[in-house]
UniProtKB/TrEMBL annotation:
InterPro entries membership: GAF (IPR003018), GAF-like_dom_sf (IPR029016)
SUPFAM superfamilies linked: GAF domain-like
Any Pfam family the entry gives: GAF_2
Coiled-coil zones: none
Protein name listed in UniProt: GAF domain-containing protein
Domain of life (superkingdom): Bacteria
Organism field: Saccharospirillum salsuginis
Gene3D superfamilies reported in the protein's UniProt record: 3.30.450.40
Lineage of source species: Bacteria, Pseudomonadati, Pseudomonadota, Gammaproteobacteria, Oceanospirillales
GAF domain boundaries: 6-132
Length: 150
């Protein structure tokens, strides 16, 4: 299975189960302190050529350091850590779940689900975490491959 197909499989499984307006996957480059987008459901707003610096903030402490999923069900809960919150809102999204992909006690990437406000109930969050965990061995494998950008 290729990297795009595993990402697509997770995207479509989550969308079929609960609806997902925006889905992205980021691979982390700890050496260069960058996060590289490698899959997106919205290439115009969030192209796979996009990368961003890995900042130190409450999101990074929660997801990267504590290795826990980040859940925010209103824009106000993530606007301070997502500089692109206006773009997220313009796509009709106001809630987010970022699930870390962990390999040998290190976060190597995140799988990101976004939708309307209050979309991610505790039950839905648990389903998304389980979905990512089921695919973690393959995700870790493909996240180690060099990123081929269009």
């Amino acid at each position: 299975m290729t990297a795009p197909s595993i990402y697509s499989d997770i995207h479509h499984a989550a969308d079929a189960k609960m609806g997902i307006r925006l889905f992205t996957v980021m691979v982390l480059d700890h050496t260069n302190n960058q996060a590289q987008r490698v899959y997106t459901s919205h290439p115009d707003a969030y192209p796979v050529t996009g990368s961003k610096p890995m900042l130190t903030n409450r999101w990074s402490r929660h997801v990267l350091d504590e290795q826990k999923p980040f859940v925010a069900n209103r824009t106000e809960e993530f606007a301070d850590v997502f500089g692109d919150h206006a773009v997220i809102n313009a796509l009709g999204c106001a809630s987010v779940v970022n699930v870390p992909v962990i390999d040998r006690q290190r976060v190597v990437g995140t799988v990101n689900f976004l939708d309307r406000a209050k979309h991610f109930s505790p039950g839905r969050v648990a389903q998304l975490i389980a979905l990512v965990e089921r695919h973690t061995p393959k995700l870790v494998e493909v996240m180690q491959e060099p990123v081929a950008l269009p």
